[in-house]
Amino acid sequence: AQSVTQLGSHVSVSEGALVLLRCNYSSSVPPYLFWYVQYPNQGLQLLLKYTSAATLVKGINGFEAEFKKSETSFHLTKPSAHMSDAAEYFCAVSSTSGTYKYIFGTGTRLKVLA
Amino acid sequence: NAGVTQTPKFQVLKTGQSMTLQCAQDMNHEYMSWYRQDPGMGLRLIHYSVGAGITDQGEVPNGYNVSRSTTEDFPLRLLSAAPSQTSVYFCASSFDGRTGNTIYFGEGSWLTVV
């Protein structure tokens, strides 16, 4: 069975500081991995996704994530936080074996301090 | 370019009432799904469909019913509403639910059961 674990339900960073949001996955087959962002009272939008082409994936708004098979991790980073990055972030996994399920983590709420 | 459209956006139900949350997509996606979002629990998969006439259960299917008579529509029925079903519901779709396709979300439906 697939699952994702997001470490830290709340993360606070200062404006201009590094953003690091952690995601570890569990999957019996090579996974596809996603990061989504949710702004208040809105649906989820795709930030980036890993589909086995390259381990370092660049997304929108300056975010990137690195797939590390040995650590079963897919952490999201951004070099310099902006106030507009304040939102909730979700890591998700889907299987390459065609089980048709996208499984989401519990989310990390990012707060950016002025 | 509507994408995934959910209605209603807000609904208040009394315990025991039934209702249907509507979801439609105009992207010719085969895969459609319903999630519920609750604080601290992330998004949990209720039901999903891989094509017209094909549905399957997700993580939390009890109390919900779905059908998929057309590619475009995937309604979610609450059979007898309970306070535990107070949540935000998201409909989502992707091209075929496999091969790392991006899953697209609707704007959400806020349901309160009193």
Instruction: Give the biggest beta sheet of chain B.
Output: 7 strands, mixed
Separate helix tally of chain B: 0
Shape of chain B: globular
Order of helices and strands of chain A: EEEEEEEEEEE
Radius of gyration of chain B: 13 Å
User: What's the helical proportion of residues of chain B?
Assistant: under 10%
Which structural class do the helices and strands of chain B define? mainly beta
The structure class of chain A reads mainly beta
The profile of the biggest β sheet of chain A is: 6 strands, mixed
Average of pLDDT of chain B: 94
The level of helicity of chain A is: under 10%
Give the N-to-C terminal Cα separation of chain B: 36 Å
- What is the oligomeric state here? heterodimer
Mean pLDDT of chain A: 91
Task: Provide an overview of this structure.
The complex is a heterodimer of chains A (114) and B (114). Chain A is mostly beta strands and 114 residues long. Chain A has strands spanning 3-7, 10-14, 19-26, 31-38, 44-50, 56-58, 64-68, 73-78, 87-95, 102-104, 108-113. Chain A starts with a strand and ends with a strand. The mean pLDDT of chain A is 91. Chain B is 0% helix and 51% strand. In chain B, strand 5 (42-51) and strand 6 (54-57) form a beta hairpin. The radius of gyration of chain B is 13 Å and the shape is globular. In chain B, 36% of the residues are buried. The chains are: A mainly beta (114), B mainly beta (114). Chain A binds chain B through residues 6, 9, 32, 34, 36, 41-46, 49-52, 90, 92, 94, 96, 98, 100-107, and chain B through 4, 31, 33, 35, 40-45, 48, 50, 56, 58, 90, 92, 94, 97-100, 102-108.
